[in-house]
């Protein structure tokens, strides 16, 4: 039976929250966090685990290079384009229902990809994965938001969620290496099925339904505009890897900007907006979204090109490369609980300003790599600093981006957080590929690129990502304005009717 979602005022005075009946008490809420964490891990793992499997899949299915690239692009297109619509569906249709359907659909799409016998079948499966992930990801974050409406428990819960978001990609590299090396590439997709079964079995008795009340009409013009606009942007950035002057790059990026501008105009006038402008109008929340774009871009660049360096220059196997990426994840996991404690002491503004600078320092250290250098001297220190810096950002970011959101907007606001990170990843892939290509062209000799030229390209990617992170620091300093006491209030035990 669904619950009423008439907003109640939380103890810390941050604004409307979901009713107490949607926020389970005691151990039950931590079990809910475990279920949501499984869903988040599945979505985050999928990006890097599939990347590791691509070379083997291409050979097995006789795919062209264009099809191999499309395996990544079609997922990003479906996921990025449908996120805001998925968030609103979760708000109106029900967050528990959307979570379960999204998880089940993602598992079925993964199974289809895991048994694919052709490139076309794999591409179709990846598109379906992206579509269901666009429903699952905002529903999961919205469930977390209404389960932990305020206070210190909310900070701890989002610390766990942020840790998975920051470190899950590196875990995907390891798991992808293990599955590809010892089983087959098929299992890099099939592994999602048992995870989903466990998550759904736990979600059905644990999660309580919650949905928006009042006007629940869908904003069809807004949905069409934002879906087409985000799809155009993601596709335009994906094509920019081949050159920023290409007609399709310029056309789709320009079209995306025009469509999103039209979306904003429509949303500011309609009474049942897909993305209410009140969600974006808050300066602090807008600053969090901007930081999410930059950090998402830098993280993609760091992981992708560091993996290239490990495998292509240093000759590591996929498994070895994945294991070599783990120190960053370990640093995030160790730092995140400490950051959660600091959040109520120093506030998010300081943490989100210092974090990008620490992460940028780590990337600059990684920018000193050489062909004959050692992992311990040239990579490990930078990875550890990068992990610490990301934890300083990720833990407060999720809290700040969803703080004070009205109960009816929890799903779409959660989708906006994920969408900014997705767009950041697309921008990062395109920009860093362009940087790498430009440096490689200048550093290559008449016989083509040698290892030294490749390393020079990777090093400049790390430096470019560091510059982007440095730019995020003043954004956080001048835009993030939240009283630290809002993260220390103790919630009263919810009354379950």
From TrEMBL:
It is found in: Cell membrane. Residues 1-22 are annotated as: Disordered. Residues 32-484 form the Major facilitator superfamily (MFS) profile domain. Its main location: membrane. InterPro entries: MFS, MFS_dom, MFS_trans_sf, Sugar_transporter_CS. Pfam families: MFS_1. Residues 13-22 have a biased composition (Low complexity). The chain crosses the membrane at residues 30-54, 66-86, 98-116, 128-146, 158-178, 184-206, 218-237, 249-266, 287-308, 320-343, 350-371, 383-405, 426-445, 457-480. This is EmrB/QacA subfamily drug resistance transporter. The lineage of its organism: Bacteria, Bacillati, Actinomycetota, Actinomycetes, Propionibacteriales.
């Amino acid at each position: 039976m669904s619950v009423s979602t008439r907003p109640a005022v939380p103890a810390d005075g941050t604004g409307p929250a979901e009713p107490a009946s949607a926020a389970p008490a005691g151990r039950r809420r931590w079990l809910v966090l475990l279920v949501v964490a499984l869903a988040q891990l599945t979505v985050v793992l999928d990006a890097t685990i599939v990347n590791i499997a691509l070379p083997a899949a291409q050979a097995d299915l006789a795919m062209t290079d264009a099809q191999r690239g499309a395996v990544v692009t079609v997922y990003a297109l479906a996921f990025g384009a449908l996120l805001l619509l998925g968030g609103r569906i979760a708000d109106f249709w029900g967050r528990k229902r959307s979570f379960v359907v999204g998880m089940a659909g993602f598992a079925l799409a993964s199974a289809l990809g895991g048994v694919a016998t052709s490139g076309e079948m794999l591409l179709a499966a990846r598109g379906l994965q992206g579509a269901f992930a666009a429903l699952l990801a905002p529903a999961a974050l919205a469930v977390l938001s209404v389960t932990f409406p305020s206070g210190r428990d909310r900070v701890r819960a989002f610390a766990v969620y942020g840790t998975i978001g920051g470190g899950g990609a590196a875990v995907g590299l390891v798991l992808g290496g293990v599955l590809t090396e010892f089983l087959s590439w098929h299992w890099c997709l099939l592994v999602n099925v048992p995870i989903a079964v466990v998550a759904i079995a736990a979600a059905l008795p644990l999660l309580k339904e919650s949905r928006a009340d009042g006007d629940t009409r869908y904003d069809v013009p807004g949905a069409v505009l934002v879906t087409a606009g985000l799809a155009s942007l993601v596709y335009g950035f994906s094509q920019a890897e081949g050159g920023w002057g290409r007609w399709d790059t310029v056309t789709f990026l320009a079209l995306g900007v025009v469509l999103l501008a039209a979306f904003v105009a429509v949303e500011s006038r309609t009474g049942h907006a897909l993305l209410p402008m009140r969600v974006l109008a808050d300066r602090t929340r807008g600053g969090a979204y901007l930081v999410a774009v930059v950090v998402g871009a830098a993280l993609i660049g760091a992981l992708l090109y560091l993996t290239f360096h490990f495998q292509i220059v240093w000759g590591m196997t996929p498994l070895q490369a994945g294991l070599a990426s783990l120190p960053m994840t370990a640093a995030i996991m160790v730092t995140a609980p400490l950051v959660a404690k600091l959040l109520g002491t120093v506030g998010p503004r300081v943490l989100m300003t210092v974090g990008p600078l620490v992460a940028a320092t780590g990337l600059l250290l990684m920018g000193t790599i050489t062909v004959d250098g050692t992992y311990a001297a040239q990579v490990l220190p930078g990875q550890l600093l990068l992990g610490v810096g990301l934890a300083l950002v990720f833990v407060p970011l999720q809290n700040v981006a969803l703080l004070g959101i009205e109960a009816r907007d929890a799903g779409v606001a959660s989708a906006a957080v994920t969408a900014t990170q997705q767009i950041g990843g697309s921008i990062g892939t395109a920009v860093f590929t362009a940087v790498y290509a430009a440096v490689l062209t200048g550093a290559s000799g008449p016989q083509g690129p040698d290892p030294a030229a490749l390393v020079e390209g990777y090093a400049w990617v790390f430096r470019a990502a560091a510059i982007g992170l440095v730019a995020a620091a003043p954004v956080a300093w001048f835009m993030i304005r939240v009283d630290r006491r809002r993260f220390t209030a103790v919630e009263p035990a919810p009354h379950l009717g």
